[in-house]
Write a structure and sequence with these properties.
- The chain has helices spanning 21-44, 46-53, 57-74, 78-85, 87-104, 111-125, 132-139, 145-174, 178-197, 205-209, 213-236, 242-264, 278-293, 295-307, 313-325, 328-341, 344-362, 375-386, 389-399, 405-444, 451-465, 469-511, 528-536.
- Helix 4 (78-85) runs antiparallel to helix 20 (405-444) and helix 7 (132-139) runs antiparallel to helix 8 (145-174).
- By secondary structure, the protein is an all-alpha fold.
């Protein structure tokens, strides 16, 4: 790979190299990991938060929606804000405010106040991840780009695989308050790293005068409302709820108004023309498919262990930590090496193939599966995560137009955050509906008077009779109903793995449509036999 630091520095790069670039790398690490950890911690730890704040199930659901929805609202605009106001202003002040809000929230007992603080908390958190790529491109030499982007990309899988263990550790040993208080420690440190690792940039008043505030508000609000409708749809019965219908319809109307706005304003902020490039459009589709396919690690495995085997987060988290997170320390350097020497499409195919294999393995699920039976699936998922998202980001960056960097950044943030959260909401609905379908068909097979049903009920009644004949019959019927519900849940999770498998297969088909990226700083350098052949043919190889 070319490593000439004087070459074109690519998209989002207008500043000079920072005097202390290692601090910028540390900011990338802390900011991106904190954002993903915080989102996952509040999601996985929501049952504990409901108990700690004395919230009803509905109140807890809206608390989660408010926090993540506000992240989706602000994330698309962060790249533009950082371009205009500078990275120090966009990340430094929010990091301190975020730490203060994180400190206060555990002491709040009034629900409206808690909800308002959660919205502010999410808005501040939403600024951390989108700006990390800008730190890389503006302040690091080209030879550092790929390792730094690998940190940015691998945070997703690492957070998914470690958050469950971390929730259990906090709740069991330190207290649920640390679900928020970890930000009190990490966010100011991130702000300090940004200050030390990025140059002081003046406000770009020319861009500020041409600001498309309407476009930013319409896109952010539209996507956030669509997410809120989808997130609450599973709980409120979708089209049977006026609230869900209002959120979805309003979000769609705002997105339509955004498209009209971008076609009318003189300086559109995120014009849709940026998506007309073949590789860019297909790359964004692949990121969406990646977020949906990787739900088998984020949702299916831990939820199965919680629902069927009744494991607490700290118990199921051991599996994800040992076989999902820790292998990342080996897989990330391997992914970087592959991208330096092989086409990104080849690496992406290997990653999605691992996802497909893991999900196909998951379709063999039974109620007898214990935690250790998922080790191979989780390990394959970890390999898939390491070999998929990083080369997808490199593919998008290699095909992007630097003059439309902020537009590109807006759409990639929508796919990154909105796609992941909407995917989780839709997977929850898929599992619920499939469980109901399987319960119905299993129930049909338990006809009244069926000899096998009568025999099993008699066996169960005889077992419970030793503890009281009066309740033995009712307990036997209840136990049989529990068996039916358990098997219906298992079948629903099998359907979930099948869904993720076919999404991975679809992703492999989309990869085949992507063409080779133009030469640039991420172009791989052949090695070994291929390098020798090219040199003999007179081709210059770096």
């Amino acid at each position: 790979m070319a490593e000439n630091d004087d070459a074109d520095r690519g998209p989002l790069s207008r500043g000079g190299v920072a005097p202390q670039p290692l601090f910028a790398v540390a900011a990338v690490l802390l900011g991106s990991f904190l954002a993903n950890f915080d989102s996952r911690l509040t999601t996985v730890g929501l049952p504990d938060l409901r108990g700690a704040f004395s919230l009803s199930f509905d109140e807890g659901a809206w608390l989660s929606t408010a926090g993540i929805g506000s992240q989706i609202f602000i994330a698309p605009a962060v790249a533009w804000l950082a371009t205009v106001f500078g990275l120090r202003r966009v990340l430094g002040i929010p990091s301190l405010a975020y730490a203060l809000i994180s400190l206060i929230i555990p002491f709040v007992h009034d629900y409206p106040t808690l909800l308002a603080l959660s919205v502010v908390h999410g808005l501040l958190l939403g600024t951390f991840v989108p700006a990390t790529l800008m730190i890389v491109f503006r302040n690091l030499p080209i030879r550092w780009w790929l390792p730094a982007i690998s940190i940015y990309s691998i945070r997703v899988g690492f957070a998914l695989d470690t958050s469950t263990s971390l929730v259990g550790f906090y709740v069991e040993h330190l207290g649920w308050q640390w679900l928020y208080w970890q930000g009190v420690v990490i966010a100011p440190l991130m702000g300090l790293m940004v200050y030390l690792g990025t140059p002081n940039e003046p406000v770009n008043r020319a861009l500020l005068r041409e600001a498309d505030w309407g476009g930013m508000l319409l896109l952010g609000a539209g996507v956030a409302m669509v997410y809120a409708g989808l997130d609450q749809g599973n709980r409120l019965d979708w089209l049977g709820s006026g609230t869900v219908m209002a959120l979805l319809a309003s979000g769609a109307a705002l997105l339509a108004a955004f498209l009209i706005n971008e076609s009318l304003v003189r300086q559109p902020w995120a014009h849709v023309n940026v998506l007309f490039s073949r590789n860019i459009g297909l790359g964004l589709v692949l990121i969406l498919l990646y977020t949906l396919t990787s739900l088998s690690n984020a949702s299916l495995v831990p939820n199965f262990l919680a629902t069927i085997t009744l494991l607490r987060p700290e118990q199921s988290g051991v599996l994800l930590l040992a076989y999902g997170a820790l292998p990342m320390f080996v897989l990330v350097p391997l992914s970087i090496w592959l991208l330096r020497h092989f086409d990104t499409r080849t690496v992406v195919i290997a990653g999605f193939a691992c996802f497909a294999a893991a999900n196909l393995w998951g379709t063999q699920l039974t109620h007898d599966w214990a935690r250790e039976d998922f080790a191979g699936i989780v390990l394959l998922q970890a390999i898939g995560q390491a070999l998929t998202l990083l080369p997808l980001i490199i593919t998008l960056l290699s095909n992007s137009d630097p003059s439309r960097a902020t537009s590109f950044a807006a759409y990639i943030q929508i796919m990154r955050l909105g796609g992941a959260e909407i995917g989780v909401a839709l997977m929850g609905t898929w599992l619920r509906v499939r469980e109901q379908v399987h319960s119905f068909y299993l129930g049909q097979n338990l006809g009244v008077g069926d000899l096998d049903v009568v025999r099993i009920l008699k066996q169960l009644t005889d077992q419970f009779a030793a503890h009281g004949t009066g309740t033995a019959q009712a307990r036997a019927v209840g136990t049989l109903a529990g068996f039916v519900q358990r098997e219906a849940n298992v079948l629903a999770y099998i359907d979930g793995f099948w869904l993720c498998f076919w999404l991975a297969v679809a992703a492999l088909g989309v990869v085949a449509l992507i063409t080779r990226a133009p030469p640039g700083p991420f172009t791989p350098a052949p090695f070994g036999f291929a390098k020798t052949v090219l040199r003999k043919c007179g081709v210059q190889v770096t």
